[in-house]
């Protein structure tokens, strides 16, 4: 007589981070979710500590509170997997889905803004402007509110040139830091959903 599916998945208890788990599939999913939760926590802490080291004391409260809030998601995943809690696992799964979607949206928005700014810098020099898709004279005078009152279109153009260079550098760092985070969030969603479905059975 062949063993049932449930019996096939059940064998000697496996120790997952010190937790004895009888079901083989549940053990594998628990290990995956625990690992991705820990990696998520590390990815939250690294930029936070970098910000604390470089931002000075003025930004410390906001950085610490931001880190604490961001750590709630990995904590949900860790505790949900460790305690086999459906609610915490569902929260971890859903938050990772939302987080990955928002991060991807921020990528698209940032690259679109960078493209628009690059076009203005490359094609819209006020001293030699053909007017095609470029700001009008009145628009130039409202595009750089951080400049001192009374600035000219040329002043605004020079300011945007500097911002375009800074934005390119920011995008490079954004990709470097956020792409791993998105990958981890996607894994967190997939494995979290699988673990949640397994716990519901």
From TrEMBL:
Keyword entries, A-Z: Membrane, Transmembrane, Transmembrane helix
TM spans (from-to): 33-54, 60-81, 88-113, 171-191
Protein name as it appears in the record: Uncharacterized protein
Organism: Polarella glacialis
